[in-house]
Amino acid sequence: MKIHAILTLTGSSQPEDALPASDHPDHPYGTWEILGKSLVERTLEHLKLAGISNSSTISENGSHSYLFPSRAASTSNFVSTWEHTISKHLNEGAEFLLLIRIGPYVELDFENLLLFHRETAGTLTQVYDQSGALDIALVSATALRNGTGTFRNRLSAAVPKHRRYMFSGYASRLKQLGDFRRLTQDALLGRNGIKPFGRQVSPGIWVAPDCRVDSSVNVVGPLYIGARSRIGAFCKINNATAIERDCEVDCGTYVENSSILAETSLGMGLQITNSIVLPGKLFRIDRNIEIDIKDRALIGRTFRFNALTNRFNALTNKRKTILPGRWLWRKKNSQPTAHVSASIHC
Amino acid sequence: MQSPSTLIIKLPLRFGAKEANTLRQELKQQLSDGASVVFDLSQVQQLDIAGIEAIRKCMAQVARQDGSIQLGKISPEAQTILELTRMDRIFNMFPRFSDDTTTYEAGSSREAVEEEIAGVQSAIGTQALVA
Predict the structure, then answer these.
(1) Bridge partners of A265?
(2) Using CB atoms within 10 A as the burial measure, which of A65, A186, A329, B105 is most buried?
(3) Entry pTM
(4) CB distance A295–B48 less than 8 Å?
């Protein structure tokens, strides 16, 4: 039984480009990392565990944010890419196509869905929960191979007769930034199936390989520190904070209940609470505002060369850094690869 | 004897190094001894370190000239940036300005204050001060 999957990413595939104006409904959550891996990566892993290894990922790039393009949708790059992808999988002999739109995060048992689909002998089964459709559908390939017109026309013809698969597990629609933050908090508190990438050094504290935390840093779990990230002296990291990979947090900065996304650098002595931070942008969740930070001394992108150097060091297992700087003194002491301060409180 | 005046400084949408420089120069000319200065950040959406530093220096200048400082409305964006840089603790030390006419200094008519505001605005550039 050949099941293939097509994953559709909402918004642009480039998270920096797609950071939208405040009235744009979609954020590119699929590419944002949560505890070390993006939702796309996690979904692909989940599919592999369910025995679905043949999959494609396409990006909506600002077009209609539906699970599949409607008959009325105008021709665009996304539509033609979608059609081409469907055709490719059908030609590869797919019997069932699993269509997943990654905006929502759903912990679905794909085997149960397939069982339901076969038992109900439907051509199209869509996943619902109490709040409505969850942007996951399973379609029989015969429905797409037969019929006339484009694939979207054939699929649209099956919509009126679709079956509803009611799902009662963990789902987050990720409609707002608060939803993304809540998803991260739930992951850190073990309320969903998202496992941090790395190892647990203390109850509720996870660190990924090659992160460096100064011995004077005070951390209060649950929290996550991503790969190759550096936390400077006298920082305080509290309360369900996730610092993703390749970040730099300068001395004396306080971070609470926030997500610091990959490759972000935070300046010295800052105070960040209830926020999602990207290079050059800060989203304050409780105030529902988005701020562009042009001053790189406050919030910027981790200097690429340092990020590459750290990666090189990690691969070659060396402790020295090429550039002099505030980390230079550390190379005299042989530090373990993922050193976490002794002052950890959970 | 000239009675102290009240200056309401409404910062623009984007308050950075360039606007900060202009404000500093104008304040040097416009600020009189004992003046009351109100900083209104209700329109500010972008504020960088240079801007915050400029506000701090203006406050210091006012204090040197025995003036008083009050804070007007602060936009959520400006409040977030001030909290980010921990400058909110300093700003919160100052009393808040209300629109009540009794807050105008004794001896200063409303027209005189508005004239003064207009003077500062035209010097800096209307767009720069009032969004």
Answers:
(1) A248, A300
(2) A186
(3) 0.76
(4) yes
